[in-house]
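Here is one chain, start to finish.
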Amino acid sequence: MKPRPPGSHYEALAKAIGQVGGLNQAADVVERPRASLHAAGDPDTPDRKRVKLSYAEACKLAGAGGTALAEHIAHEAGGVFVPGGAIDQAALQAQLATFTAESGEMVSEMIRRAADGEFDHLDGAASLSLIQDALRPMLALYHHCKARAAQR
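Its structure:
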């Protein structure tokens, strides 16, 4: 799929489709023709052919692993999506490593972008995906610690 506007519901849908295994699998999940689902996620679809994704379909995609939609809705509401549950030791170590790498990349890129004394809308847009990439493993770690703390 072609790139979608950063932070848009089109981008969230494209990511969710990828998370469930691609357009064919996502179309099966929502029980909709592949072309119709593609049109729902394409900002360049002409108005006369525009279709929308229903809330029920979004829930089906999220339930099948397309959590990008939940992340987008949480962001639009001023929050963040936090997947729950404890993880095993190998996943904990992987999340720690991912968080370290992603947060380091995010901080260094944002410092580079702010170095000229102006952090404009282009810098903000370019930084969104870096911040999201760092938040995902951090939030997984948060839920892991929360679940473990509740196991008194």
